[in-house]
Automatic annotation (TrEMBL):
UniProt entry tagged with the keyword Cell membrane: no
Residue ranges, compositional bias (Polar residues): 1-10
The UniProt record lists the keyword Transmembrane helix: yes
Any Pfam family matching the protein: SNARE
UniProt biased composition (Basic and acidic residues): 22-31
Family membership noted in the UniProt record: Belongs to the syntaxin family.
SUPFAM superfamilies: t-snare proteins
TM segment ranges: 286-309
Protein name: t-SNARE
Top-level taxon of the source organism: Eukaryota
GO molecular function: SNAP receptor activity; SNARE binding
Any one Gene Ontology cellular component term annotated for this protein: endomembrane system
Gene3D superfamilies linked: 1.20.58.70
Amino acid sequence: MAQQYSNGGYSQVGGYGNNNPYDERGDDRQTGRYNNFAQGRYDEQSDVEMQPYNGAGVDPNAILNDCREVDRSLDQINSQLDNLERAFKQSISRPDQSTNEVTSLSSQVMTGYRALVTRVKNIKSKPESGSPRNAPQVGRVDRRLKQTINRYQTMEADFRRDSQAAAERQYRIVKPEATEAEVREACENPDTPIFQQALLSSDRRGQAQSSLRNVKERHEAIQKIERQMVELAQLFTDLDQIVTEQEPMVMNIEQKGEEVHENVLKGNEEIGGAIVKARSRNRKKWWCLLIVILIIIIIAVVVGVVVAINKKN
């Protein structure tokens, strides 16, 4: 079974007809459709106009809009998982029922996962996805996607276990005297001659034929789901690889930011020192001016006194 993911958070999934959720040529940039979606999820950005950035030609809310679309797609996947869970239960409770519905629904879910993983890879590959404004929403949808994958993996494990038990019960009905090892081998490998031998030796040949068909169908459905889970695990390996590849770039950006911050601090210190020196120079100029004025006053007083004395003489 594919590796389980413990963290929970891509392009729209589900939906049919003209509203193809996997066709990105549609109206997935019309933000007005999401004004009332998931009340409270994006309140922190509610005061921002969802309009393209004038002059720059780039929508500053593109990442947040993509996250909204991923949320809507995850809602549809969860609805599909509800339907698939019901199909699993019906398949177990009614051994004579075809597994076509299980196969179809599981294929729909996987198609949705492929689209979401691709969408989130695109989101996380954009440098602005790591900005303080966008990072919380990107991380949240990433975790939520992984939660839905955990749910699918748990459902698949339960279906495989229950299908195995149902197949063993059917085989014992056809061949009550079978040993535990024989039952296990027949159910794990329905294409082996064991079931055919049971058909020939059983007086319930019609029921044995039906049991063989049902066991084979369930076995094929389980094998397909397991292949899908392996594929999904690989998709997430690729998704995590994007994060690993981006780490040097992020570290370089952070280093450059720190350098800019240090340069700003040094610049502020130098400006502060220049201001202090300028004020000191200004004070010295005023003191020099005051001294010159005092000297002029003293000279004027001395000249006045001398002139007065000379007149008296």
